[in-house]
Amino acid sequence: IKKWNIYSGSFTWIATATIDTGAATIRNIYLAKKPYTAFAGKEPTPVEVTDTYNFLDGLEQRYGVEGLDTREKTLFNKLNGIGTNEQLLFYQATDEMMGHQYANVQQRMNRTGTLLDKEFTHLRKEWDNKSKQSNKLKVFGMRDEYKTDTAGIIDY
Length: 156
Hints:
Blueprint: E1 13-20, E2 25-33, H1 49-62, H2 71-80, H3 87-97, H4 100-126
Antiparallel strand pairs: 1-2
């Protein structure tokens, strides 16, 4: 084999090798971790670019500081296990760690609960069926927007 192509299987790591061209053998293989801030992006959606960058910078600063049997180490091992073609998983994990997924789910559950409470109260109190011959159908829904200035919570 005259030419070696060395790749890392991890999205957050790169691999390179030094090759002895005369013998066509690998001398050394080097692995280097890509800084998490390289994945911060340039688009200000759904949150400001600086928010994502600052979060990933803090994550980068914590890398290697944690003990072997800590929850942080487990988290970093999971991030390191994300494959080269699985960058979407990394972005979803970052989004969840920043609290966007949980916060928005909680907010939507609250809004849905409020809607159901309002509609059930309406059905219980205001609907009166004067005749046994009449049937009524109630369809309800909600069209709404949620805007907030809370840091890290995404408008929808």
